[in-house]
Amino acid sequence: MSSFPLSSPARTLCAGLLLAVGACSLLGQATESPATVARGAWLLESDLLSVAHERCSTDDGSYLSRSVLWGNVLLSTGVSDRVDVQAGFDGWLDDSPGGGEPSRHGHGDGVLRMKWTFAGKDGEGFAAALLPQLRLPISSSGMGAHRLEPGLFVPLSLPLGEKWFWGGMIGLDSTRADNGDWNFYWQGSSYLCCTLSKALSAYAELTGSGPFTAPRVPAWQAGLGLAWQLNQRLLCEAALYRGINTGALDWNPVLRLSLSF
Asked: Taking the domains of the chain in order of start, what are their residue ranges?
């Protein structure tokens, strides 16, 4: 679902698996997994709740800005052993920018994606995938994309023994202004996961993004998360991200759910 908190929702979980190392590779962090959904299977992923807090400072003092994202979803199905297709919707956003600015409320954009695992197999050695996406400008209140906006991501993974697992991702995203001008953004992330038990895993994650040309500070966040595999089909996850520079959100707690069928 994508790539990073309060960005495009870019996460994938293989359906129906519960393995010691595999559980780490199947989490729903901001970092996408190179694994694809099995042929004929379906996967529903959702950020049930994602809250962004940021304290902003001006010459007149400081104020709190908050955004709450409810129920963004991503539905994936496998079309071959190494390819799946995905459709997503960004959910409902309550945006309270503070500082005298009016609040905004409305639904977000849509997204169409495809994932191809071109190297290896996730959970069984090094694996890599290509993940192109197209953002659809269907949001209300002008809260999302203005035009069709493409992006391309490369998820990576590598098991590090029986209990540890590494994942990473690099990518290129884009936005297009009302006047037609394009802006391009780099994105990158990395996480380290440890399997605590058959049902419980913990991870630490670092994410970053920034423009190639616009004079804006890149945004870097670090987070910790716990995932609980309730059964072979249902995974619940809670994570807390903290901005580590001035370009990032101060705090971003997230509650996630993944259901395979």
From this structure: 22-53+67-100+113-260
Mean pLDDT of 245-258: 90
pLDDT in tens, 158-194: 999 889 999 999 999 998 887 888 889 999 999 999 9
Evaluate whether the domain defined by 22-53+67-100+113-260 bears CATH number 2.60.120.200.
no
Are 136 and 112 in contact by the 8 Å Cβ rule? The answer is yes
Rounded to two decimals, the pTM is 0.84
In this predicted model, what pLDDT tens digit does every residue of 52-71 receive, in sequence order? 888 776 666 666 788 888 99
Output the pLDDT for position 230. Answer: 95
Q: How far apart are CA 122 and CA 35, in angstroms?
A: 5
